[in-house]
Specification:
single chain, about 120 residues, mainly beta, Jelly Rolls, 4-stranded antiparallel beta sheet
């Protein structure tokens, strides 16, 4: 029997984020996924406009509160995207039940800050 793989691509954008560590990708159930990849784009032409993204994972069976230190653990380093650039991050999700992403910026930003998420099983 052939080994069939599947992939689900989800895209979205943030119009305005205020405050620190606001959810840009709410908790996603990944317990049946092998790998998840994220791509983030910051369209602001000002280099000093910096988005800091944090990817979190959770072993619990429910999503809980994204970013809460007693429920979620940050996966890897911060992903920093300055104006007019993008970043790509890929992680293995074996053993994880949930993944989510928060964003904070040096300023409140307008439309066009986009993300793509590829889930592979």
């Amino acid at each position: 029997m052939a080994n069939f793989k599947s992939a689900i691509l989800t895209t979205g954008s943030a119009t305005t984020v205020t405050g620190e560590n606001a959810a840009i990708i709410p908790p996603v159930n990944v317990q049946h996924e092998d790998r998840i990849s994220f791509q983030f784009y910051n369209p602001n032409g000002t280099v000093g406009h910096i988005d800091t993204l944090k990817v979190y994972g959770r072993l619990g069976t429910t999503s809980g509160t994204l970013g809460s230190t007693d429920e979620w653990t940050q996966i890897g380093d911060d992903v920093v995207v300055s104006g007019s650039s993008s970043a790509l991050k890929s992680i293995a999700t074996t053993g994880l039940n949930w993944v989510g992403v928060t964003v904070s910026g040096t300023t409140t930003f307008g439309a066009g800050h986009t993300y793509a998420m590829l889930r592979q099983a």
